[in-house]
Amino acid sequence: MLNYDALVIGAGYIGCAVAHDLSEAGLRTALLDRGPVAAGASRANYGNVQVQDAELEHSLSMIMAGFERFANLEARLGRDVGLRKLGSLLLIENEAQWRRMEARLPALHAAGVEAELIPAKYLPEVEPLLDPASALGACYHPHEAQVNPFALIWAYVAAGQEKGLDVHHGVEVTGFEMRGGRVKGVRTHQGTFSCDMVALCTGAWTPQLARLLGREWAISHVRGQAIVTERSHLRLQNHVASAAFFEEAQPTLSSSGRIVETEAASEKAILAISQTAEGHFLLGEAALVTDRLDSTATIAGQSAIARLVERHFPAVRGLRVLRGWAAPVAYTDDELPFFGPVDGIERLFVAAAFKSTVIVTPLVGETVAQWALDGRTDLDLTPFSPDRSLRHVH
Predict the structure, then answer these.
(1) Which of 26, 34, 50, 369 could be bridged to 21 by S-S, CB 3.0 to 4.6 A?
(2) Distances in Å between the alpha carbon of 40 and those of 112, 283, 328, 353?
(3) d(CA 15, CA 26)
């Protein structure tokens, strides 16, 4: 049996940040994952530090606090994470989306977010590569950012290891050790790990672990797909996505309430395009609501992405594709994460299903460490409680 103060399960953005911050706080910490570091959704990510797409009622203050942490994050970790400033455009493709984006502006402005609606004819001034005829306009925010996803994740791991963090790969959790309503360890194929607390940072895999605890948590997931191109001399000025991301995904259900995966559904794509600092275009995304933890890219999904990108950005037509990817990406119906302690199970904390993960990563690490040490948090976690009532789709 290996003994620790804290166990963090899931080695993506959130898990690595939490493990680092717990180690920094002086707790003997182990980071466990069924695969390598960044094996899930965090390996299939643009690294965008996104502000303006936040859920407004409960999450905006958390998003803004997370964004502020990036100002000194590289100095804190002692490593370059590829942080660079970047603007963003949310393309508006119909009148309903225009009204929805317009309705969001007062809350964004009240929070200090600079954002404005731009009619299509002015879009070339902000994003020259975009075909303005492909949209009615966009919501523009000039102050976002981007990191290198793997540089950020490994910076947390390396800095954590300097503070005593142990990392265990290929460790699949098979059960939890409980004593008097308190979590005291986890059982795995590699043996038992004892601890004083557990943080579940497991994204789309969280419901599986919840069932080992006798819980049914309404975290769903999509199989998200994207494409990476060769380097290009063309330069994108912003991260560009569609306002269609604000429209609720509605899976097709059978009479028994289970998700029915159809070929038509797998061919749908919503625009999300960015570019790395080195010049590779990141093109997406095709998303299929599924109950399978599937990381297989499909011809239908990749083709749908290519057609969509060519319509909005004809200048990138002809670039060679280096690879495509797919990964299960967690979400909830109310757009709020599962972020907080669990009622009835002492010393268990959940941090999963964030709508925009990168931007909150530093704040989540700090928050979990504060809870581990003090039993409280400065951030109000009530709206994000894992025990709130949500519809569950199988």
Answers:
(1) 369
(2) 33, 18, 7, 12
(3) 17
Q: How many Å apart are CA 271 and CA 140, to the nearest integer?
A: 15
Sign of the dihedral through C-alpha 28, 32, 36, 42? negative
pTM, 2 dp: 0.94
Block residue for tokens 């102050």: 143
pLDDT digit string, tens, across residues 122-136: 999 999 999 999 999
Side-chain-side CA neighbours of 386 within 13 Å: the count stands at 25
Query: What is the distance between the alpha carbons of residues 105 and 237, in angstroms, rounded to a whole number?
Result: 22
Give the integer Cα–Cα distance in Å for 365 and 217. 22
Segment 256-275 shows an average pLDDT of 67
Both 210 and 224 in one domain: the answer is no
Q: Are residues 183 and 288 in the same domain?
A: no
Is residue 390 assigned to a domain? Answer: no
Residues 236, 364: Cα–Cα separation, whole Å: 30
Give the pLDDT confidence score for residue 385 in this predicted structure. Answer: 97
389 in any annotated domain: no
Closest CA to 316 of 130, 140, 49: 130
The angle formed by the CA atoms of residues 213, 289 and 329, to the nearest 5 degrees, is 60
Residue 73: partners with Cβ closer than 8 Å, 6 or more residues away: 81, 83, 362
Residue 65 DSSP symbol: H
Mean pLDDT of the chain: 93
The set of residues, in sequence order, having a beta carbon less than 8 Å from that of 333 and lying 6+ positions away, is 218, 220, 248, 390, 391
What is the rounded CA–CA span in Å between residue 1 and residue 332? 36
Q: What's the total number of domains in the chain?
A: 2
Phi, psi of 311 (to 5 degrees): -65, -40
pLDDT of 265 reads 52
Determine contact, residues 58/158, Cβ cutoff 8 Å: no
Give the chain's radius of gyration (CA, Å): 21
The answer, yes or no, to whether residue 256 has pLDDT greater than 70, is no
CA atoms within 13 A on the CB side of 337: 28
Cα–Cα–Cα angle for 227, 249, 268, nearest 5°? 40
Residue 303 lies in a domain: yes
Token couple for 32? 């466990």
Residue 175 near residue 193, CB atoms below 8 Å: no
Average pLDDT over residues 363-371: 98
